[in-house]
């Protein structure tokens, strides 16, 4: 079953790479997919450290593109357990409040709530072009992604245009619980603070990823893996020694907002952000 999941994720990742590597001068729309591409990881998430992935290939053998593709697929699947990541997750530091921070945060929550209310019925989101990441694979939380908004996030911030809508599945229905915003991984904390005050919210990114070498991809799912976002390898030197490929950062900055909650701690919950799937 794990092999099947890895293969499915690899296919979606390979298809999504074309979108993720777009530059500002080439605003090409993502390819269509019946099930939707992995929005939470592709839209607005810089995959430049994982170039060379092949698209639509099934070839076997020690091909670096295949290896990186499986690595990226594993990375996405691993994000369901942030609390287990330790040195593989980086959070922004909380800052001292500045004048205007609380009001700015309030306006962002209002924008997130306004954007969300339209999509309490998940069918409306689908009809508006949102794509579900792997709807047939059980997940703790499902990301419905708007690729246009993800592209916009590379250039500016609009609270009413979240990159992804966050749903929990209940039977055949989906319950909307929040939204996810993204920002380019090149951003420093001052730039993130300009989008959402860092005295209120903590963004996160995924770091220190060692791609398994060809022939050892199955080790991502071992009880005590060396490779991946739950692996023991956290440095370039250790990754090189194990024959892997090291990625200091994969994907872009992300932050969750839960606009239907009643208090600030719950709306911007870091614990919940750790526990939810990205």
Summarize the helices and strands and which ones pair or pack:
Blueprint: H1 2-20, H2 39-42, H3 64-78, E1 89-91, H4 101-117, H5 122-127, E2 131-132, E3 142-145, H6 147-152, E4 164-170, E5 173-183, H7 189-195, E6 204-211, H8 236-241, E7 245-257, H9 264-267, H10 270-275
Antiparallel strand pairs: 1-6, 2-3, 3-4, 4-5, 5-7, 6-7
Helix pairs in contact: 1-3
Strand content: 15-25%
What number of domains? 1
The dominant shape is: globular
Helix content: 25-40%
pLDDT < 50 stretches: 1-68, 71-78, 80-84
**What's the average pLDDT?**
74
Distance between the termini: 21 Å
N to C succession of SSEs: HHHEHHEEHEEHEHEHH
Largest sheet entry: 7 strands, antiparallel
Cα gyration radius (Å): 18 Å
Q: Which structural class do the helices and strands define?
A: alpha+beta
Identify the strand order in the major beta sheet.
1-6-7-5-4-3-2
Query: Total helix count?
Result: 10
**Total beta strand runs:** 7
Structural descriptors:
disordered N terminus; 278 residues; 10 helices; 7-stranded antiparallel sheet; alpha+beta; 32% helix; 17% strand
Provide an overview of this structure.
The chain has one domain (about 1-275). The protein is about 30% helix and about 15% strand. It is built from 10 helices and 7 strands. The protein is globular, with a radius of gyration of 18 Å. The model is unreliable at about 1-70, about 70-80 and about 80-85 (pLDDT under 50).
